[in-house]
Amino acid sequence: MSEEVEWWEYDDAAEMAAAVAGDIGFIIESALDARGAAVIALAGGKTPVPIYETLAAAKLDWKRVTIIPSDERIVPLGDPLSNVTVLAKHFLPKGARVMPIVPNALPDYKAAGGSADALMQDLHWPLDLCLLGVGADGHTASIFPGPDLDEALAGPKERRALGVMPDPMPADAPVPRVTLSLAAITTARALMIAVTGKDKRKVIEAGIKQGKASALPIGRVLASTELPVDIHWAP
Ligand SMILES: O=C1O[C@H](COP(=O)(O)O)[C@@H](O)[C@H](O)[C@H]1O
Known about the structure:
Elements: E1 5-9, H1 13-35, E2 38-42, H2 49-56, E3 65-69, E4 71-73, H3 83-91, E5 97-98, H4 109-120, E6 129-132, H5 149-154, E7 161-164, E8 177-180, H6 182-186, E9 191-196, H7 198-210, H8 217-224, E10 229-234
Parallel strand pairs: 1-10, 2-3, 2-6, 3-5, 6-9, 9-10
Antiparallel strand pairs: 4-8, 7-8
Helix pairs in contact: 1-2, 2-3, 7-8
Bound molecules: the ligand O=C1O[C@H](COP(=O)(O)O)[C@@H](O)[C@H](O)[C@H]1O.
The ligand O=C1O[C@H](COP(=O)(O)O)[C@@H](O)[C@H](O)[C@H]1O is lined by residues 43-47, 70-71, 73, 83, 133, 135, 141-142, 170, 173.
């Protein structure tokens, strides 16, 4: 269990975006200073978009930054549901290397997960940062409650990614997914969460309270990391 879960509260999403973008910029700069390169995983979905708009305006040596999505919906590149497409829109023009993790031609979610995992073996590990979002059902990245939960949580520690079939499907993006594994997430050098709304706050609080026994993926992730975790929240 993370010994230090710290909540950061903001008046609105714009204020949260400025603070989180500032923290991510600092983490990237520190990695560039230490190693000459940075590898970060950024959350998909709608909540972090204002963060990416602010972060993309930061003066950083983007050419040395690799960005992967924390998870991907299995849809073609350019599809409105594609997480990497949102990241590419913001960070490719800056010169960052934005890496799609789902091959266009792989409709089978297990094969897509295996392919993402193979692709990720070539990256520098651990990640310098993993920024996570949380769904109202407690999913984080694409680790969902349901049949694939145990596989996502308990796989071999060298496995970085896997394919999952959410069951039930989330209404806003009802498609199979590829997600970073628990091991890939919890071994990152820094772990942050950014969410908005009272419902998600309640879900996270419930997950933290339930700890290792939680049926909520976010509870299990937080119970499995030793890292200090910053949870950024706006109404
Ligand atoms: O499906 C997903 O959902 C979560 C939360 O998304 P949001 O739109 O409610 O912010 C997200 O973190 C994850 O990356 C995404 O694929």
